[in-house]
């Protein structure tokens, strides 16, 4: 028997020696949240893999033996375990936050933290990618609290807009890796110039209210703080294609080297998006790329980013006239776009906006000691382009020309095609020094110096008759310069369960522009502004998962380019001042996380929209002495079952102007001045400020890696001007269709729209991940308008309002396929 047993063991030894086992598990943070994309590495043999979207990983085909397993993730401390493998093992990792992560310094300097007394929402790469079918970046933020988005073309592709707490894009501070994105003059952020930026974004924080000190334009409604792609330790290649309604196609290719030699990485993306748009002739042809190269030292990171976007969009920025959209007998009453219409009934094919913007960033982060770290960035943005348009029967004198006589006929008016150019440069430096002398105390000193130069000029490229205009005649030129300097210091001190927060910022602006002086001469002028923006707050922690907070912040904001150039020193708007009071409660648990926030935003000299637009779709604004926004924001996410979750948010607010007087000049048919038409209001609603905004997203996962989401958005009534739709005697509406509800009511009706999103992913031996997605937007085909404008005009003493609207697409879909290698 002994000899038989020995023989059997000898026969089994080769089998036992060749036995193959696996190591699997899940990687989470200390809160139990999955860390998708975390890297798991073993040595001898050298094998690494990445965790899936749920944080799970698996390494197979390992012989028995001793192994050292290392789990790492950006922003967390690397954890190592050594095991003896003699069978399949489950090894889970719970990673703790790193005391220093080089690539986080730049971004966290201007971000709110877990205990900050600020209302904010964090969005991870996973949150963004589930909605990334090619729509503009504002649509990725549409389900965050107090946010309303709109699209000129009706599909979310091309020119889009975003409002936070009723404040438009000129009041929303946007940074990319801590570098300002807002245009220095108009102060808006034009995401159309960076199509498919979402595909290169790692995470976004949306702050509401004044928020923390940041670089660039003042935050009067909120901040959008974007961090682009960070380190990925393993190489990858990804292909993503979306296609759907209105001829929409998106193609994206992304590649990355992973970590080379333990120090280097290179990542790149190339994208193309094309769409016809829901509105007639609202097409978009967009291209972009993103390249990032980084060097990782023991205590430092050096990263260079180069990214650019080019857009050519047919103009749809004037919307649809009320008398068209209200006429249901017209087959295209909701999609009619009259821009570019020529006398012969055809449309000018080059009625387009054509612009390219290139961004260059050099980011450096250094750990100086265990208590001190530094980040700095150099940046340069080059923008150049024009919008071209056809203008019917223009007076040549308006272009600085003298009428000419051709064949005995004086040519004083003619049809023209013109281009209005913007050639600008924006460059500067940002920095942040973070000091943590002890675990309960930290300081951040940061700031920036940025310089902008912009050349505004126009060309006439075509006339019906020569009219004495040479080819590419330049009819105007306006050069502007702006220097923007800021420095801020922020500190947090924790005493027991209480955290005290203080933030002080000084900002100086020097703006040179061509504008009207007191004698109505158009001359170069300067505006110098100095702002002090203090902030203070307190947070009390009940435990690790629950806290309450309160804060007070002051924000100041300069007028924009049009405010300066379309006025004289006597009528020039004043800077705005905001005092922002916030108080809230946050909770975070395994089943439910959410919060409630109350805000009171008190404005002095707020620049309000009158409802009118100029000829390129820019709003006209005036100062009002006293106005305010007050409301409550509620948001939460509950895991009802393992497969079912529900996220929802709601904002209830009141947005008022006190003692408003509007006065518009009046002229008779011969343009002789008449008595101005005046409207007065004791208290009235601020334009474009709904009192109720609700978002909901119900997600059901019936199978592994598959989900069905039902996404809803309700936006309450919004007014196009600040009269709250009051229509007193002597004030009429668009005369074209007097009984048209769109003409009678100067408002955007409330709307409730619903989307359905399906996703499923799986893998094969050759392809790491195959993702399938379907987005059906406005599934119940609701007819609604998300934006609009009203042009007040006084005709012989009677005020007339001409209203324009931006209808959004009825039921439409986008399908996507993504391949990851």
Automatic annotation (TrEMBL):
Highest taxon, organism lineage: Bacteria
Major localization class:
membrane
Q: Which UniProt keywords apply?
A: Cell outer membrane, Ion transport, Iron, Iron transport, Membrane, Receptor, Signal, TonB box, Transmembrane, Transmembrane beta strand, Transport
GO MF terms held by the record:
siderophore uptake transmembrane transporter activity
Which InterPro entries does the annotation name? Beta-barrel_TonB (IPR000531), Beta-barrel_TonB_sf (IPR036942), CarboxyPept-like_regulatory (IPR008969), Plug_dom (IPR012910), Plug_dom_sf (IPR037066), TonB-dep_rcpt-like (IPR039426)
- Pfam families noted in UniProt: CarbopepD_reg_2, Plug, TonB_dep_Rec_b-barrel
UniProt topology in membrane? Multi-pass membrane protein
Chain ranges of the TonB-dependent receptor-like beta-barrel domain: 314-778
Q: Where in the cell is it found?
A: Cell outer membrane
List the Gene3D superfamilies: Carboxypeptidase-like, regulatory domain, TonB-dependent receptor, beta-barrel domain, TonB-dependent receptor, plug domain
What are the boundaries of the signal sequence?
1-19
An example GO CC term for this entry is:
cell outer membrane
Q: Which PROSITE patterns match?
A: TONB_DEPENDENT_REC_3
Which residue intervals define the domain TonB-dependent receptor plug in the entry?
Answer: 114-222
Q: Which family does the record claim for this protein?
A: Belongs to the TonB-dependent receptor family.
Specify the protein name.
TonB-dependent receptor
- Which organism does this record belong to? Mucilaginibacter terrigena
Organism lineage string: Bacteria, Pseudomonadati, Bacteroidota, Sphingobacteriia, Sphingobacteriales
């Amino acid at each position: 028997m002994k000899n038989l047993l020995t023989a059997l063991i000898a026969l089994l030894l080769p089998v036992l020696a060749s036995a193959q086992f696996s190591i699997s598990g899940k990687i989470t943070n200390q809160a139990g949240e999955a860390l998708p994309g975390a890297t798991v590495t073993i040595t001898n043999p050298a094998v690494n893999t990445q965790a899936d979207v749920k944080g799970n990983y698996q390494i197979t085909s390992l012989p028995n033996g001793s192994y050292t397993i290392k789990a790492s993730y950006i922003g967390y401390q690397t954890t190592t375990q050594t095991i003896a493998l003699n069978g399949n093992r489950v090894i889970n990792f719970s990673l703790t936050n790193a005391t220093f992560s080089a690539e986080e310094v730049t971004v966290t300097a201007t971000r709110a933290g877990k205990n900050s007394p600020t209302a904010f929402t964090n969005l991870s790469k996973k949150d963004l990618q589930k909605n990334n079918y090619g729509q503009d970046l504002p649509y990725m933020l549409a389900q965050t609290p107090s946010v309303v988005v709109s699209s000129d073309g009706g599909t979310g592709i091309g020119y889009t807009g975003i409002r936070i707490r009723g404040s438009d894009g000129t009041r929303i501070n946007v940074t990319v890796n801590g570098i300002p994105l807002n245009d220095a003059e108009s102060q808006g952020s034009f995401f159309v110039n960076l199509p498919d930026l979402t595909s290169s974004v790692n995470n976004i924080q949306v702050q509401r209210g004044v928020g923390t000190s940041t670089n660039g334009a003042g935050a009067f409604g909120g901040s959008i703080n974007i961090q682009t792609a960070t380190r990925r330790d393993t190489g990858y290649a990804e292909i993503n294609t979306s296609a759907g309604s209105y001829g929409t196609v998106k193609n994206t290719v992304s590649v990355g080297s992973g970590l080379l030699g333990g120090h280097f990485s290179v990542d790149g993306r190339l994208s193309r998006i094309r769409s016809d748009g829901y509105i007639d002739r609202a097409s978009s042809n967009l291209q972009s790329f993103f390249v990032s190269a980084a060097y990782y030292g023991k205590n430092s990171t050096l990263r260079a980013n180069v990214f650019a976007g080019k857009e050519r969009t047919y103009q749809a920025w004037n919307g649809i006239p009320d008398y068209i959209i209200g006429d249901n007998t017209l087959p295209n009453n909701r999609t009619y776009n009259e821009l570019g219409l020529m006398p012969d009934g055809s449309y000018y094919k080059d009625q387009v906006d054509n612009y390219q913007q290139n961004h260059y960033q050099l980011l450096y982060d250094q750990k100086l000691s265990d208590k001190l770290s530094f980040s700095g960035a150099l940046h340069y943005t080059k923008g150049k382009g024009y919008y071209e348009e056809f203008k019917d029967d223009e007076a040549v004198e308006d272009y600085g020309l003298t009428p000419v006589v051709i064949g005995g006929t004086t040519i004083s008016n003619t049809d023209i095609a013109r281009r209005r150019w913007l050639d600008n440069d924006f460059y500067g430096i940002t920095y942040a020094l973070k000091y943590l002398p002890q675990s309960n105390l930290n300081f951040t000193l940061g700031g920036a110096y940025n310089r902008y130069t912009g050349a505004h000029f126009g060309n006439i490229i075509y006339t019906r008759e020569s009219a004495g205009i040479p080819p590419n005649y330049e009819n105007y030129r306006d050069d502007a310069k702006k220097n923007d300097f800021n420095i801020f210091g922020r500190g947090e001190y924790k005493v027991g369960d209480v955290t005290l927060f203080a933030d002080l910022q000084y900002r100086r602006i020097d703006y040179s522009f061509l504008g009207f002086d007191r004698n109505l001469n158009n001359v170069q002028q300067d505006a110098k502004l100095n702002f002090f923006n203090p902030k203070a707050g307190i947070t009390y922690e009940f435990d690790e998962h629950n806290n309450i907070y309160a804060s007070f912040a002051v924000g100041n904001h300069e007028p924009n380019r049009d405010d300066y150039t379309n006025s004289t020193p006597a009528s020039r708007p004043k800077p705005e001042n905001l005092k922002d009071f916030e108080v809230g409660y946050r909770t975070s648990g395994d089943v439910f996380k959410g919060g409630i926030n109350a805000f009171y935003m008190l404005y002095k000299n707020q620049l309000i929209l009158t409802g009118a637009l100029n000829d390129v779709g820019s709003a006209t604004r005036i100062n009002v002495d006293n106005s305010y926004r007050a409301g409550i924001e509620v948001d939460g996410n509950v895991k009802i079952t393992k497969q079912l979750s529900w996220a929802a948010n709601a904002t209830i607010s009141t947005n008022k102007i006190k003692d408003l007087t509007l006065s518009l000049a009046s002229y008779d048919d011969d343009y002789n001045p008449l008595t101005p038409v005046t409207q007065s209001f004791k208290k009235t609603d601020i334009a474009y400020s709904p009192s109720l905004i609700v978002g909901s997203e119900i997600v059901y996962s019936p199978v592994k890696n598959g989900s069905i989401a039902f996404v809803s958005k309700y936006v309450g009534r919004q007014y196009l001007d600040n009269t709250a739709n009051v229509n007193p005697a002597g004030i009429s509406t668009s005369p074209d269709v007097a009984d048209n509800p769109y003409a009678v009511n100067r408002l955007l009706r409330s709307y409730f729209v619903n989307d359905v999103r399906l996703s499923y992913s799986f893998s094969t031996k050759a392809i790491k991940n195959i993702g399938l997605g379907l987005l059906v937007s406005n599934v119940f085909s609701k007819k609604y308008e998300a934006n609009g404008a009203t042009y007040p005009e006084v005709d012989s003493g009677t005020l007339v309002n001409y209203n324009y609207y931006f209808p959004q697409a009825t039921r439409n879909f986008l399908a996507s396929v993504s391949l990851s290698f």
